[in-house]
Amino acid sequence: MPLLQHLCQLLYDSHIGTMIRESDYAFSVIESVHVLAVTLLVGTIAILDLRMLGLVLRSISITRIARSVFPLTWSGFVVMFLSGFLLFWAEAAKNYTNPAFRIKLILLALVGLNPLIFHTTVYRRVHEWEVLAISPWRARIAAIASLTLWSGVIIAGRAIAYF
């Protein structure tokens, strides 16, 4: 048995994994918290992405919006990560072979690379374009990639239950 599959089986068979999975309420409560955290995270990211596309809040600078939403974005991320890990823990052995889960992980890696690339390139010169109604093409590409990848993460996450 491959090491990763063995680790997934250990998580699945653990007391915590079994407790979450077999509880009348634990899994559904954790899943609800996860969905709300994803909503907070993606919602705040979408505000910034839609602003960079020039579709909303055109009169407000990019950096002002970013400063306003980033604390909420990070809060959503932390809760999403922790609740997602607990959901994975409860179903690790099943998720190991689930194609929707694997696609979600790939999309999460890509959605993590997108802001890393954006903030180390285009955003470094934000002071030059932050008040423009429509951002430069590279910022718009990053915004479109972000919205597309997050949509994919949500769709793949939802599909996990059906595979």
TrEMBL record:
Residues 30-162 form the DUF6644 domain. The chain crosses the membrane at residues 25-48, 69-89, 101-120, 141-161. InterPro entries: DUF6644. It holds the Pfam family DUF6644. It comes from Granulicella pectinivorans. This is DUF6644 domain-containing protein. Keywords: Membrane, Transmembrane, Transmembrane helix.
